Amino acid sequence: MPPDETLQAEQRHLAHARADLGRMREHTLSLDGDKGGGGGLSTEYLKLALARRAQALIDDPTTPLFFGRIDGFTGERHYIGRRHVRDAAGDPAVIDWRAELSRSFYRASRADPQGVRMRRRFGFDRGQLTAYEDEHLDDAAEPELRSAILTAEIERPRVGPMRDIVATIQPEQDALVRADIGSTVCVQGAPGTGKTAVGLHRAAYLLYAYRDRLRRSGVLVIGPNTSFLRYIGDVLPALGEIDATQVTLEQLCARVPVRAGEPVPTALLKGDPRLADVVARAAWSQVRTPVEDFVVARAPGRWRVPRQELAEMFDELRGRDVRYAAARAMLAQRLAHAVLVRMEDAGHSPDDRVQDAVARSAPVKAFVAAHWPALDPVKLVFGLLSDRDRLAAAAAGILTEAEQATLAWPKPPRGPASARWSLADAVLVDEAADVLNRTPSLGHVVLDEAQDLSPMQLRAVGRRCSTGSATLLGDLAQATTPWAVRSWTEALDQLGKPEGSVAALTLGYRVPGQVLDFASRLLPLIAPGLTPPTAVRVDAGSLLVTRTSTAERSPALVSAVRAALTAEGLVGLVVPDTEVDRTCSLLDQAGLSYVRVEESRDDVRLVVVPAAMVKGLEFDHVVVLEPAAIVADETAAGGHGLRRLYVVLTRAVSSLRVVHSAPLPAPLSR
User: Where are the alpha helices (DSSP H) in 178-293?
Assistant: First the structure.
């Protein structure tokens, strides 16, 4: 069949598949949830399920409905796309990329064809099919295909939020995406290797493969900041998944408002895992073993529980693997049961209702309140940080006196409401809340930029997946916080998942080779043990470094920005944190339209980004101002300046322009 006829035939299949998808949605909308639910709660659940189903079946005409095809050796043919589509007869017109049948589209090779005779990739423009490429896995004489369609999709300019990568998932990425739900996986990924996309697509895969289980238990995506969450926010909905919650760590630990930062030594100490023991001791030290007998009046008499039996009761409850509040609730029942035993020994016949009544009686409540008081996590941590005597009692033998002085607030606020809580404080409050009451576990948690979290922050995340699994995403070379863990083994231990596996992604698909090689000059200093990434794309001319005088720096920066804007795609202007306002004033004077990264607008192509907020973001073109100042700012803040610079230099998908008047850091000046 001539190529033009082949393309026309595929276009007809695309049109039929879109019509089939529309028919599926119309059928879903025609179903009456009021008639099929059986009434009450089940009816509301059915109506909600139908609404979700209808939303997932909305067709986006600007997005390819399928992007590939596999033909088997026995004549079978399957189209691979973002969702499952069936025709009027119930046969599949498009196979969901997450289905087991689709695995071979990503994994098949000449060495291991997995039943695939021919693999076809499609090129699209605004949802319309424009081209195709065939790879015959049964033909050893055919030259190995270097897919122009695949390359074009990887390099396609991105205006606005992050896109899904279902059309370009590579075999090593697919293996991680399809990892079993019971497995915790840590992905060490160099810049441009697609680690964030892998984590999000794993969440989408698990929601597909274990839908009922995860719909009950939940999926959580944790990102470093709200700008990052906006950037990735459209990926899961584009894949038809709306059941995952996306939050920052600050939002996760939102029992107190985060209003302040704090000195690095203090933040380091508050991130130390020893603080978990301090918090636990502060809570359990509130329990006071009785020194007198407990007496309660209950017809037909007065019943005494001796203090020795009470002491044994308290010791047993403290020794159980239960939370503080759960043990407190047990105490009331244990007291009531002890009274019940004495009533039976006296010849009476009380039943369970009597025991419950005794447990709820005023004397028992008063006894429990006096000896096992109810605690509030906010007040507990407030007391530790504002009362040096209380802190000394809880930290004795755990923290030195100097560390206790570092931890305590210099000037205690009047109360919790007036305290200037830091993020590290909020994590301590979250720890305290878990000491008091077990944190509910989700089915799966995806944690991005995991390399920047402290041990205490990792514990907070681990509590959310204590009975589930997790996907950790990060790059040790990009760890910029002073409290970051030193290895992924340590991170998995603090997360509570020591059995988790570590996988490395080292092929950089997004960052041009020139740019990646330039940034990788920093690796021997910032991460000497890591394997340098290998760029798949080698684009000459993608890097331009401009040295200028201080007087000429502003015109040179404006010129670099204008040059970047002549190309298609999104431009990120990354500047030292202290230069943001000055840079924005310069852009205003030059008449250039821009937005700051914290603003949510997709109609402006130039984004001004402080270096501290660039992590996790990508831009088609990046302009960097004064690398030396970026290093100095980060170092002054207690972080690792060269690692911050490494992050900044690896945000470009197509081109990087560096403008500087101060000398470049030594590794880059060659």
Answer: 195-209, 211-217, 226-232, 235-238, 249-252, 264-270, 274-284
